[in-house]
Amino acid sequence: MPDFDFLFFAEVLVGGLLAGVMYSLVAIGFVLIYKTSHVLNFAQGSMVLLAALTFVSLLERGVPFWASLLLALAVMVLLGLSIERTVLRPLVNKPPITLFMATLGLSYVIEGVAQLVWGTQVHGLELGIDDKPFEFAGILISKFDLVAAGIAAAMGCAARRAVFAFIRGLKGSSGAGSGRLRLDPRSHRRWPLNWSWRKAF
Amino acid sequence: MMNPPASRFPRWLGPVALLAVAYGVLPIFGSSYLFEAILTPFLALSLAAVGLNLLTGYAGQASLGSAAFMAVGAFAAYNFNLRVPGLPLLTSLVLAGFVATALGVVFGLPSLRLRGFYLAVSTLAAQFFVQWALTKFSWFSNNNPSGVIDAPSLTLSGVSFDSSIGRYLFAVTIVVVLTWLAQRLVHTQTGHNFIAVRDNELAAKVIGVPVLRTKLLAFAISSFIIGVAGALWAFAYLRTVEPAGFNLDRSFQVVFIIIIGGLASIRGAFFGAALLVVFPLILSRLGSFLLGDHFDSGVLDMSQHIVLGALIIFFLIAEPDGLVALWDRLKRRLLPIPNNP
To answer: B139, B147 in Cβ contact below 8 A?
Structure first.
């Protein structure tokens, strides 16, 4: 490869890794639910959409930044709790594929509600974090990506602790915890995605 | 399985009455709107759901790739029809079914090791792979720049079935034949093997059911039926053949049909398909009646999603056996069986 540009390669690699950390947050959401309840949550994507849409729409309506963040969080926690109550609890001890189908139906509902309430138009989001890349050892790194990835990594560590604590708690109690379906802990760990969604919008 | 207790009507009466309605009453009284917007898509989706129900409902192998096999059926039928001059339409339909079968067996191979939603996810691969291949290689769509091709005319030995009523009759005949075969199949040893594998694979193996062959056979037969259904969907309903007509949403739609209609029931496929075809129409009428101009197509789309998703959850929780179970209960209440406690 005569004209292999190492700097460019490193730049793309770093950018990709930083974006990957944010994707991993969605994946952690999957893992968190699967590890604790053995439900494969197909509605994950639509929940991310709802969280992001709620946050952005609140901001656009003049709600202060932190307030809308907290409100979006609260909505997601409430959603998680009510899903557990209304959808998953009646389906305890059903085969996994049934639960999976239920989350498939759920994703249809959430997607519909999110777009019905907040509209389908594309939103922009300014967070006050400068997206100007800075130079580090000759490669350009986006400050925005770095901040978002940092938050995502922190949330990832928190989620990891939560899962371990949960599993340890199950083993300590009776060990037969597969029937317990708790969806709530993960929903509020998804919030930094609001940030990463700026790219998608 | 227990035989249903003898009712006061002979057992052949139901099917014969249905056939009489399908061939006698509807063609006389139906409008072309009824045929084109309701009955033809209903028939094609029902057939696809019958195919998926054999695989998922009877043999217990979850699949999210139905639309992929529909697409393979449609494109294969189109290409056979295009590239082999003089091939009768029915032959290309059957050949298309076999192409879908071959692909179904390939994507059924993971079922030998995977089960549950791991298998479902591996069938998602079929969905994405087929759509990618059909879009990427323009040979499949005869190098058409837009990728959307017109379906050939439906002509069987000189008789044209291109009118809306003709397309309906064409579809209904194919659906009746394949449904009859599927209905026969579930009462044979093979059908019983399907159920045995679904209910307890280990026990099935112990009593001598060839588990691997049964699973692959389920994939093969179901893909054949779904492939033919795809050809019907493209040729008789859409009148175009394009990959976008067979996206992931279509796969979900077929899955929803068998959940709502009733798993492991041939009739369930028809009940579910009827609901899924008719309910958007009802919803749009109802919505524009109640809300007027606020109910535009965007809102309609969203509310369709919501109602459909809620229906799925409702049926999974409240009536896992689907509309068929509701129907049977209703029938028992309306037509009490004499001399039966």
So the answer is: no
**What does pTM read for this prediction?**
0.81
Residue A85: C-alpha distances to residues A92, A183, B153 (Å): 11, 9, 53
Inter-chain touch A100–B117, beta carbons under 8 Å: yes
Nearest CA to CA, how far is A157 from chain B (Å)?
A: 27
What is the separation, in whole angstroms, between the first and last Cα of chain B? Answer: 20
The full length of chain A comes to: 201
DSSP class of residue A64 equals: -
Q: How many CA atoms lie within 13 A of B261 on its CB side?
A: 32
**Which pair of tokens denotes residue B198?**
């679904």
Q: How far is CA B208 from CA B56, B205, B211, B214, B265, in A?
A: 21, 5, 8, 11, 25
pLDDT tens, residue by residue, B124-159:
889 999 999 988 888 888 777 777 778 777 777 777
Tell if the CB–CB gap between B302 and A115 is shorter than 8 Å.
yes
Q: B330-335 — which CB contacts under 8 Å span 24+ positions?
A: B335/B7, B335/B8
Q: What is the pLDDT of residues B309-332, one digit of tens each?
A: 998 899 888 888 889 888 888 888
Chain B residues in contact with A98 by the CB 8 A cut-off are 316, 320
CA–CA separation, B29 vs B168, rounded Å?
13
| pLDDT one-digit tens code per residue, B228-254 | 999 999 988 888 888 888 888 899 999
Rounded Cα distance, A39 and A178, in Å: 10
Q: Hey, are the CB atoms on A116 and B309 less than 8 Å from each other?
A: no
Cβ-Cβ contacts under 8 Å, A95 against chain B: 116
Q: Is a pLDDT exceeding 50 seen at residue B169?
A: yes
Closest partner residue to B306 (CB to CB) among A96, A101, A113 is A113
Residue pair A189/A158 in contact (Cβ under 8 Å)? The answer is: yes
Distance from CA of A53 to the nearest CA of B (A): 15
B252 token code pair: 């979900």
Indicate the length of chain B as a whole number: 341
**Three-state secondary structure string covering chain B:** CCCCCCCCCCCCHHHHHHHHHHHHHHHHHCCHHHHHHHHHHHHHHHHHHHHHHHHHHHCCCCCCCHHHHHHHHHHHHHHHHHHCCCCCHHHHHHHHHHHHHHHHHHHHHHHHCCCCHHHHHHHHHHHHHHHHHHHHCCCCCCCCCCCCEECCCCEECCEECCCHHHHHHHHHHHHHHHHHHHHHHCCCHHHHHHHHHHHCHHHHHHCCCCHHHHHHHHHHHHHHHHHHHHHHHHHHHHCEECHHHHCHHHHHHHHHHHHHHCCCCHHHHHHHHHHHHHHHHHHHHHHHHHHHHHCCHHHHHHHHHHHHHHHHHHHHHHCCCHHHHHHHHHHHHHCCCCCCC
